[in-house]
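Hi V.,

You were right to ask for the full record rather than a summary. Here it is.
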Amino acid sequence: MQIDSSWFQVDPWLVVLIAIAIAAFLAVAITWGIRAHRREILAGREELIGKTAEVKTVMNPKGTVLIQGELWTAILEAGRAVPGDKVVITKVDHLRVSVTKSKEVNR
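Predicted structure:
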């Protein structure tokens, strides 16, 4: 069985149009990828260090703090903190944060 190629032809302009569309898509995707890679980190453990949190349970030294609307288990590095006190995050270890009492006036 022989296939007659006269009934199946690809328009050269269609090939050019598809090639241009693929090139444009790749250019935009690569540009967005580079921009995203250069941006400052806005989420994750790097963002939490240095932020202020509110103590929710008595910390002596372990307790719970509220960070950006989320409750986290925290370890107070020194002293004692009561609910309402402000603490500063110094370290993030998995799902636990280390904190120190804020130098600002608490409550």
